[in-house]
Amino acid sequence: MKKIVSIVAVVMGLMMVGNSVKAQAGNKIGYISLQELIPSMSEYKKADTALNDYQTALGQQFDDMRKEYYEKDSVLNSKDSVKFTKAQLEMKRREVNELLVKLQGWQQQAQQMYQQKQQELIAPIQKKAVDAVQAVAKENGYAYVLTKEALLVSPPAEDILPLVKKKLGVK
C-alpha cells in the first residue's frame, strides 16, 4: 500500500512539474524602460515646457515677495521711520514679520505647488504609456513585461520599447 501511494505521489509530482514547465514555456517575458519611453513622447515635451514656465512663474513670485519685503524693511529701518507714530511702526513691523514668515515658507509651498502641477501634467502621459505597453504586450503575447530599471538579474527577455514607440507613433 505504501508503494502505491509513493508511486502515485511521484507520478502526480512529475505531472505537476511537466505542466509547470509547459505553462512557462508559452509565456513570453519582455521589458521596457519607461524612463526612456515617456520623455520621447510629444506630449511629454509639451508638459515639460509648461512645467518650466510654471517654475519660472513661481520663481518670479518669490522675487516679487522678496523685493516687497526689502522695500518695507528698508522703510522701517530708515531715518524716515521717525515720522511714523508708535502704532504705525508696530503695524509696519508686523507686516515685515508676516512677509518674512511667508518668504521662509515659500520654498516648501512652491515645491508642493510644482509637484502638484507636475502630477497634473505627467499623470495622463504616464497612463497613456502604460496603456500602450499593455496593448503591445497583449498583441504580441507577452505574459510579463517588467520595468528595465527595477531588475538587477532577470531571465532572458525582449526589449519591447521599439514596439511601444511604434504603437505610439514616436520616432
* Terminal Cα span: 68 Å
How do the helices and strands follow one another from N- to C-terminus? Answer: HEHHHEEH
Q: Determine the CATH topology.
A: Protein Binding, DinI Protein, Chain A
Low-confidence parts: 17-23
Approximate strand percentage: 5-15%
Structural class: mainly alpha
- CATH level 1 class label: Alpha Beta
The Rg value, from CA coordinates, equals: 31 Å
Present the secondary structure layout.
Elements: H1 2-25, E1 28-32, H2 34-40, H3 42-76, H4 86-140, E2 142-147, E3 158-159, H5 161-168
Parallel strand pairs: 1-2, 1-3
Helix pairs in contact: 3-4, 4-5
How would you characterize this protein structure?
The protein is mainly alpha-helical and 171 residues long. It has one domain (27-168): Skp domain (Protein Binding, DinI Protein, Chain A, 2-Layer Sandwich). It has helices spanning 2-25, 34-40, 42-76, 86-140, 161-168; strands spanning 28-32, 142-147, 158-159. A 3-stranded parallel beta sheet has the order 2-1-3. The longest helix has 55 residues, at 86-140. The chain starts with a helix and ends with a helix. Residues 17-23 have low confidence and may be disordered.
